[in-house]
Amino acid sequence: MWKFKVPRLTPEETFSKRLIELFAVNQTDVNAFLGVVNSTRTLLAQHAQETATIVHADAASVVLTVPPTEQAQKIHDVLMALIQDVLQKDHAAASQLLEEDEVKNAFGGFGADQRNITVRLNSRADGSATLLISEIRVGSKGSTSTRVVGVPRDGPYPDDLAWLTRFQSNFGVLQPAFNAGIPIASGAK
Length: 189
Description:
Layout: H1 17-23, H2 27-51, E1 53-57, E2 62-66, H3 72-88, H4 92-95, H5 100-106, E3 114-123, E4 129-138, E5 144-152, H6 168-171, E6 176-179
Parallel strand pairs: 3-6
Antiparallel strand pairs: 1-2, 2-3, 3-4, 4-5
Helix pairs in contact: 2-3
């Protein structure tokens, strides 16, 4: 059987228009899915909020770590069960063609990966500054994935990093480590 990727989630974490058309899901199904998406995000944020620790902090960077959660498999199973329920109502065979990795990536590995987060200050040409947040997820078998986001110095943070406000006072001591136009090195500490 051929497998192909259909994006399950848009950046807004909802069914993409293409997926709605492909599986003919109705608004009730979309709402049910979004409810579980929000619950999943809340569980993952709560875990990060409760377990994140600073492993290094100075004027150049603040480095935090979030350990994996023991609930990762349960979080995964609940979300995947709902996705299967929504998509298999009339399209059992078609839903099997979707790649689960799309959902795993959208939810940061469901908390199964260790998250190493480095926050640095980037000064901009206009005199403003942004926080550069580099997140490296390390899987149990050593696999890694990296993302870098820039946010205004006083936020708001992306939804999945909103818990970083707990450490906002630590970011206040950061001195510009980068100048506008110079990218942060992937995996740098």
